[in-house]
Design brief:
Length: 517
């Protein structure tokens, strides 16, 4: 079935009651604000010491703060694909990989909104990196891009020169009269690279942070964390300006504002990992016209829940194959704490981030996270989770760990010996099963699986049941991912792109590494 047929069928199915309601009710707008590589709990509203995020805190205080929000995958493209489709990584083929594409058979909530009359657009980092055209799409996954405005004064190294709020204002000026809108504000902060010493230069102190148990707690590592904090704070300042645009246009209270991140912080054992540091996300939502503010919700929610939430709020039907569940019941509740007891677990996964292993091999992982435990299944424990000594598409070894001062520090031979335990946790091989008790081991460093645990089998079975029920090829012993094209076109990584000619790939093999996307 073509994408156009999918959309027509969808609109026909949803045209009776929901569209009739919309003739007399003003539909809400949506402002989706997404950081690039920010982990929970790095925001003031969560009590994180030393970090200053007044705009996020405002959205949380005037809306709902979520304490158990998780991305579906700890990598940029797959995480963003699951947001748009409302489906898990293993349900969306090439869209579930970094530098992938999006097959047209998967309806995108942005297109469904646009087809029903929404003005849709984005600034900054939208879907990607990847080639959305390669899968057959004929229009951008999110809408028209607004990225021409730049900051009047060039920001420091590592900060995106695009003025997100000014681009949002341009989008609002282009909006047809009375049309509802969906706008994706995709920051590239706090993605690497950082200006070295930015954290200290912006007023932070080394004693404001303490490294988790899986990193060395040294001035070098603390300084890197503070540089990350400084970019989270920059992102928060851009959020404040975007909220100001909404207020000036009189649309703040009729807009469902969602603020979150795509995946965890760009540090070892965080991003590209299924531990909490890689998949546990900040999330605050505000909708002044409908949602009671000042609440904290402890239900488990995932990024796959955003698509059905936006569609339901717009009065549209949700495609039947959607895995996520609308968050409207949680938003409409007047209570805090646990609202829906059935939301007691979440499921995450990863197949391939960069090309960090021979022949496009992946590092397949699946996990289930409940309130007290996390169970991780590593399907190929003989492979290196970081890529090991293979020269990756980043033109580095351990390619699934972003280039960073902490990485350089930990890979220094003398520090490998000095911090042997931390080095093994961050760069070593892992067993087929990992199981952690979160109340006693919040950093997830003491694996209980080898000696057994009373809750281990229940989590193992629940994960497998979910994967089978949702059609995961991996649990059935199949691997379609290794053969999928890696659509990078810039720098050395383009040499891994099998859609390019041999001549182009050979030329790319002599190129330098490119700036991470």
């Amino acid at each position: 079935m073509s994408a156009d047929m999918t959309r027509r069928a969808f609109l026909a199915a949803s045209s009776a009651t929901p569209l009739a309601c919309r003739r007399t009710e003003r539909r809400p707008n949506f402002l989706f604000v997404i950081a690039d590589d920010q982990s929970f709990p790095h925001a003031g509203a969560y009590g994180c010491k030393g970090i200053r995020t007044p705009a996020f805190d405002r959205v949380a205080n005037e809306g709902v703060l979520f304490t158990n929000s998780f991305c579906a995958s700890p990598s940029c493209t797959p995480s963003r694909s699951t947001i748009l489709t409302g489906r898990q990584v293993w349900q969306i083929e090439q869209a579930g990989l970094l530098y992938g594409t999006i097959p047209t058979k998967y309806p995108l909530m942005t297109h469904l909104l646009e087809d029903s009359g929404y003005h849709a657009g984005f600034t900054g980092k939208g879907w990607g990196p990847g080639d959305w055209r390669a899968g057959g799409l004929t229009r951008h996954p999110i809408g028209k891009e607004y990225s021409s405005r730049r900051h009047a004064t060039a920001p420091r190294t590592g900060i995106d020169p695009r003025d997100y709020a000014a681009n949002f204002a341009d989008f609002m000026r282009d909006r047809p009269s009375a049309s509802p809108f969906f706008f994706w504000l995709g920051a590239t902060e706090p993605h690497r690279i950082y200006a070295n010493g930015a954290g200290l230069a912006t007023g932070h102190k080394l004693d404001e942070v303490q490294a988790p148990a899986y990193w060395p707690d040294t001035p070098e590592v603390r300084g890197d964390i503070l540089d990350y904090y400084s970019e989270v704070e920059w992102f928060d300042q851009q959020l404040a300006q975007a909220l100001n645009v909404l207020e000036k246009t009189g649309e703040l209270d009729n807009t469902l504002v969602v603020v979150t991140s795509d995946n965890g912080m760009p540090f070892p054992r965080a991003k590209v990992n299924l531990y909490d540091s890689g998949v546990h996300m900040p999330l605050a939502m505000r909708w002044g016209a409908r949602v009671k503010g000042g609440r904290t919700v402890d239900d488990f929610v995932q990024h796959i829940d955003f698509a059905p939430t936006f569609l339901a709020a717009a009065g549209l039907s949700v495609p039947s194959a959607t895995t996520g569940r609308s968050l409207l019941p949680l938003l409409d509740s007047s209570h805090s704490g646990v609202i829906e007891p059935s939301r007691d677990a979440m499921f995450t996964s990863l197949e391939r981030h960069v090309m960090a292993r021979p022949d496009g091999q992946t590092y397949p992982m699946r996990s289930i996270r409940t309130r007290d435990y996390i169970y991780i299944r590593n399907f190929m424990p003989d492979r290196w989770p970081t890529g090991g000594e293979f020269l990756s598409s980043n033109r580095t070894t351990h390619g699934d760990v972003d280039g960073a001062p902490i990485r350089d520090f930990m890979l220094e031979p003398s520090n490998q010996a000095r911090f042997a335990r931390q080095y093994d946790l961050c760069f070593g091989r892992r067993p087929a099963e990992e199981f952690y008790h979160l109340p006693s081991d919040p950093d997830q460093i003491r694996n209980l699986a080898p000696q057994g645990h009373p809750e281990l089998d229940a989590h193992r079975k629940r994960l497998e049941e979910n994967l089978r029920a949702t059609g995961d090829p991996r649990i059935e012993g199949r691997d379609p991912w290794q053969g999928y094209v890696y659509y990078q076109t810039a720098g050395y990584g383009a040499s891994f792109n099998k859609s390019l000619s041999e001549e182009v790939r050979a030329k790319a093999s002599g190129a330098a590494r490119h700036k991470p996307e």
